[in-house]
Write a structure and sequence with these properties.
The chain is an alpha/beta fold and about 250 residues long. The chain has a single domain, classed as Rossmann fold. Helix content is about 45%, strand content about 15%. The protein is built from 8 helices and 9 strands. It is globular.
């Protein structure tokens, strides 16, 4: 559906791909990211868009994201909480090796923005007595772990938390016309997966693990499903975890 206003957190990878598809379909996009240059590039590519630069782990910034979108475009129809990160560089790994910093940084980056932005959006929709849509970013690793190459237990835990929060929200807010779903991508070509993209062993493994893609997915593959879930085309779907994994979950 064209003419909708989407608030998308993140300015690269799957967030960027979804923003571009949404804009090309005639929708308005408000992007919130930490990179001024990435946000500006999107604004140039999508003339109807606007952006806010800030860290969504901050409560004030998250509330400002929703209020700024409302001030600029008059409404928020759907929110895509795509912002997040891998905590490997902070010490995420198998639980016996995971540092406290690795755990805290990963959990904060992947769960706190989704909570804060969702809270601000739901408060707006309830106040305005209207419905809305939230799509949260999960991961196939939350339910289908891979111990050989992707033993990042804080990351898996953070995405599991996103799934649980989203299902609880979906149940509570369905009577108010507010839908909440999750996408759980497999391994996707994004800036966050640079390590995997340059590792020949992982590339060989992924060609088998994601047989439908014969390797890593493109960000646009995920964005197409995200856009479907953000619009009225999926108006009867809520509380769902949609795997976009090229066959990961059913491959050994």
């Amino acid at each position: 559906m064209a003419g909708q206003v989407f608030l998308i957190t993140g300015s690269s990878g799957m967030a960027r791909a979804t923003a571009i598809l949404a804009g090309q379909a005639g929708n308005i996009v408000f992007v919130v990211g930490m990179s001024e240059s990435q946000c500006n590039e999107l604004a140039v590519e999508l003339p109807k868009s606007a952006y806010l630069v800030g860290d969504l782990r901050d409560e004030v910034t998250a509330e400002q994201a929703v209020s700024s979108c409302l001030q600029r475009f008059g409404k928020v129809d759907a929110v895509f909480n795509a912002a997040g990160m891998s905590g490997r560089k902070f010490g995420d790994g198998p639980i016996h090796e995971c540092s406290l910093a690795g755990w805290q940084e990963t959990m904060d980056a992947n769960t706190r923005p989704a909570f804060l932005v969702s809270r601000a959006a739901v408060r707006y929709w309830l106040s305005a007595q209207r419905g809305g849509v939230i799509l949260n970013m999960g991961s196939v690793l939350a339910c289908h772990p891979e111990p050989r190459h992707f033993a990042t237990h804080a990351y898996a835990a953070s995405k599991g938390a996103i799934i649980s929060m989203s299902r609880a929200m979906a149940s509570y807010y369905a009577p108010y016309g507010i839908r909440v779903n999750v996408i759980a991508p497999g391994l996707v070509k994004t800036p966050m997966t640079t390590r995997a993209q340059s590792d020949s062993q992982i590339q060989k493994f992924i060609a088998h693990k994601q047989p439908l893609a014969r390797g890593m997915l493109d960000a646009t593959d995920v964005a197409q499903v995200a856009l479907f879930l953000l619009t009225d085309q999926s108006k009867h779907l809520t509380g769902q975890v949609v795997k976009i994994d090229g066959g990961w979950a059913i491959s050994s």
